[in-house]
Amino acid sequence: xxxxxxxxxxxxxxxxxxxxxxxxxxxxxxxxxxxxxxxxxxxxxxxxxxxxxxxxxxxxxxxxxxxxxxxxxxxxxxxxxxxxxxxxxxxxxxxxxxxxxxxxxxxxxxxxxxxxxxxxxxxxxxxxxxxxxxxxxxxxxxxxxxxxxxxxxxxxxxxxxxxxxxxxxxxxxxxxxxxxxxxxxxxxxxxxxxxxxxxxxxxxxxxxxxxxxxxxxxxxxxxxxxxxxxxxxxxxxxxxxxxxxxxxxxxxxxxxxxxxxxxxxxxxxxxxxxxxxxxxxxxxxxxxxxxxxxxxxxxxxxxxxxxxxxxxxxxxxxxxxxxx
Amino acid sequence: xxxxxxxxxxxxxxxxxxxxxxxxxxxxxxxxxxxxxxxxxxxxxxxxxxxxxxxxxxxxxxxxxxxxxxxxxxxxxxxxxxxxxxxxxxxxxxxxxxxxxxxxxxxxxxxxxxxxxxxxxxxxxxxxxxxxxxxxxxxxxxxxxxxxxxxxxxxxxxxxxxxxxxxxxxxxxxxxxxxxxxxxxxxxxxxxxxxxxxxxxxxxxxxxxxxxxxxxxxxxxxxxxxxxxxxxxxxxxxxxxxxxxxxxxxxxxxxxxxxxxxxxxxxxxxxxxxxxxxxxxxxxxxxxxxxxxxxxxxxxxxxxxxxxxxxxxxxxxxxxxxxx
Amino acid sequence: xxxxxxxxxxxxxxxxxxxxxxxxxxxxxxxxxxxxxxxxxxxxxxxxxxxxxxxxxxxxxxxxxxxxxxxxxxxxxxxxxxxxxxxxxxxxxxxxxxxxxxxxxxxxxxxxxxxxxxxxxxxxxxxxxxxxxxxxxxxxxxxxxxxxxxxxxxxxxxxxxxxxxxxxxxxxxxxxxxxxxxxxxxxxxxxxxxxxxxxxxxxxxxxxxxxxxxxxxxxxxxxxxxxxxxxxxx
Lengths: 324, 324, 234
Description:
Number of helices of chain B: 12
Helix content of chain C: 40-55%
Distance between the termini of chain C: 34 Å
Structural class of chain C: alpha/beta
Largest sheet of chain B: 2 strands, antiparallel
Oligomer: heterotrimer
């Protein structure tokens, strides 16, 4: 994890400027681009960024792998949907979704008593349990799903901006956490939680913090997603897809860094657009890509760039400077 | 890895154990009384028997997961898919005319070899990076396998027919399908053989030693990588047989791997990591609880039972009921 | 028997050993002394193959062993008894000992080795079927040494065997160690208990901050003023 001495350590860092540039461009896109389809893809992309960054918070920074974050996504989504049906304004539903999701994180606290392995299983259970529960609950549509009150004229623009702002907020939050003392603690925990505990770090407290924040943002992302759907059902919303996509994107891009998940998200989104014709293969491609990346480049693509490409670039730049 | 059961030593844990036993006994007794009042006692034996029979299968799956977890500290998230692969192999073998009970040992061997390959090429090289990368890669493998199976063999549900599939045994008025009894017997025999292997053979002792202290095992001249590879193969082979049995007793399709794996995890937590006896007993406990739950509350909630057990064990005695 | 030249080793970016040069002569007891954190355990781990050195070479019986994996080194006869006992807690005394003889060669002589160990440590024979975690500190140390002996070592390395033992036990421990040496096994002894170690050592090295700062015959070093002041507390 790049805490100090990394790319973000000084404001002269080129990556920070690139980031600001891209964000500015992102804000301006809807003015120039009118095709709803492209805006939709970007909107999804930002949602994935939120998921990748926040999965990374608990899975990459704090080293506790979660496989069932779809639970939090789903809670946010369903809460927002129900609020929407009940007639409340979108923002309210979305925020409530985020808070509820964060609240549900409580169910995972007992798993912190044992080492990280059981936390992963716990998250699987949470997602599966919620899915099962909602599939049997008539109020939310049970197995048939829920039709949402989409108005005749449904613009993507407001949701595009909501997703963008959320992605921005997530990235900035993760960045600030990474640079702060909390970030250092996370790094210590992820490397060796027994050692961290022995020097007096309240490791559970930090794990809880990471979990709650990531659950909150996942819930918000569920809300922003849910509010632009015409139909949702528990099978897909709580299913493996949403639990896994954020994770895969973070891993391929590079866990443990702030830039990695964003990189991974954009890469995978581009690739999956090309593969859209193949439909069902998407998950297969993702999973094979993840296997290859973990096996041969555990630090992700951003890890390769920082470890191999950057130093070589630096020496190249040094060498091509004229001698004085 | 435990080869014997012992009582907890401290006062608080003895107290906890006593309280839990008393509570469980009270629940069972009041339940019995309640059923007696309603004249439904007659239903009790068939449900118990049914639960035990199912539980044996859960136990078999759990043994494989438990050994891998105990020796390598890796949560084998693709255990479910290995299980289904085993089932498919037996299914196709039966289609070609081979007797299913002959096909099972072959399925064991094939999946054993597959397990060896998976471990040596993909998982083993990652062990030096910590515990998270191997777990993540098994997750990737699980999804990859599942999607490949879906593509190749469609999500259709299949059943493996055997010569004894239609026979029902009549024991003191209860009608039991013969397949379930045979499945339970096979599961118990395999579990017993595994235990024998762990306790009596040198290699098995080495396995147990590594699960207790892997660095020192190296100093004994034990080739830990080779043992890890064997151990994973063993787990995969056991999964193959379990999958075949499940295909015979129930039915299977490419997507059932997940739920069985979830239940196996609940059983492993219940019985203690690395504990073969614990896995079998835990499986039976889960099986019985599930059958009762499904009788009382209806079929949709069976998965919730596993989750409940998982959480309860983590809260009351995280190391499992049989651990020290 | 064991020649170490210019060894640099550590954990990742953290370098612990700097240019260590050391000789262990056959049939002798060689002691490596030094304060906590000097790198003594790191040294043993590197010899056993648990740590890969950054540079330098290790020769055993004339051959370079850097490429060998840990378990292969055990097969060669290099056996380490690690710091803090490190037994297999849920296995019995006998099972721990049997596992010590895991390598093919050791397994052939298992019965013989077991008899030897029981003769050396009769209390282990008494407690043979007890779980290793039920033994007292001194008994655990005996079990650890016994387990090491089961591997039919040519070079036996002990990492701080007297750690945590009562003084009376320390005396009998060092007697036992001397006896093991007399039976023909070369010893490399890492210790903080300088007085006891030097009393049985033929050769001794002092390691401080990862560097060898002194070397000499056991008896000589015992009388050396620096050693006396820094380590024996006079």
